[in-house]
Amino acid sequence: MLKGILIALGVIIGVLILLIVLGVYYFLPSENKILNFIKNNPSRSSILLVRNGTIIMGKNIDKIMPLASTVKIILAIEYAEQSANGQLNPDKMVSINELDKFYIPIPMAALIQVG
Predict the structure, then answer these.
(1) Do residues 13 and 20 make contact, with C-beta atoms less than 8 angstroms apart?
(2) Number of domains in the chain
(3) d(Cα 56, Cα 98) in Å, to the nearest integer?
(4) Could you tell me the CA-to-CA distances from 43 to 9, 37, 47 in Å, in that order?
């Protein structure tokens, strides 16, 4: 009985370790994933490579794009506050038009500081 429990526990731990390793490998960014994204999504990507204050390479550096991570934080805070106050139902879908109300355009000159 104890031997069977130990074997089952070993199998479960082994599967968990395998899932963690695969998860880390899948979600860990690599240069190939980034390069493939830029290659496959030229209109949705921008990159600026600067070394010692000198621009080495730039692609779409003058194109204004939203700061996705910043926008997500603002939306998450507002969503949590409105859900807590009962202003919206957290189980209801939110329309894109509502999300666009929180978009704040930022001039590209404010984002790039070389030197």
Answers:
(1) no
(2) 1
(3) 40
(4) 49, 11, 12
Query: φ, ψ for residue 62 (rounded to 5)?
Result: -95, 0
Report the residue count for the chain.
Answer: 115
Q: Which of 55, 68, 45, 37 is nearest to 112 (CA)?
A: 55
Instruction: Please state, in angstroms and rounded to a whole number, the distance separating the CA atoms of residues 66 and 36.
Output: 21
Judge whether 37 lies within some domain: no
Query: pLDDT digit string (tens) for 73-94?
Result: 887 888 889 989 999 888 888 7
Indicate whether 74 belongs to any domain. Answer: yes
- Per the structure, the complete domain to which residue 84 belongs is given by 61-115
Distance CA 89, CA 83 (A): 6
Residue 101 within any structural domain of the chain: yes
What is the rounded average pLDDT of the residues 35-45? 85
Rounded to 5 degrees, φ, ψ at 101 are -65, -25
Residue 19 belongs to some domain of the structure: no
CA dihedral 79, 82, 88, 94 (to 10 degrees): -20
Confidence label for 111 from pLDDT (cuts 50, 70 and 90):
low
